[in-house]
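STRUCTURE REQUEST FORM
Protein name: N-acetyltransferase domain-containing protein
Source organism: Alicyclobacillus ferrooxydans
Requested output: structure tokens
Priority: standard
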Amino acid sequence: MVDVFVTRVKDLNVDDVYPLVLESEKEGFRFVRRLYDEYMSGANRFGCDGEALFVARQLNQMVGICGLNRDPYRPFGNVGRVRRLYVHTDFRKYGVGRQLVSNVIMEARRFYTTLSLRTDNPMADQFYRAIGFSTDHAPDNATHWLSLNPESD
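Status: completed
Returned output:
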């Protein structure tokens, strides 16, 4: 397998992400389409302070995507939210998702004390728990959370 590289993008090429939209919809997921639609409309471009969008590429193909926003359910708190993590089926189990979320965590540490997310997918639940997210005492509108200041726990 050729190396996959994760980079932060400021201007998402929507033509590059569209194959991921189609792939995710084959699996019954709607959240990559939502990312695409919100990016196209300008509703969410991951461009505010404390926000970022990361993509994983193998050569010229986008194989994964993950964003960071301020948690919309806690707009005045120090909580960021992992958004729209998706990895193409052919690239799962190679650490691509871990690389994407690691980049989100590094960026989130600059702005937030806690990172939250919501998923109802059992595989995603296992993934997030394996990389350190907790489900105990998750805040409202979240299923998982991660303290970004572990020394203060």
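Reviewer notes: The beta strands are 5-8, 52-58, 61-70, 79-87, 114-117, 144-147. The chain has a mean pLDDT of 94.
Form closed.
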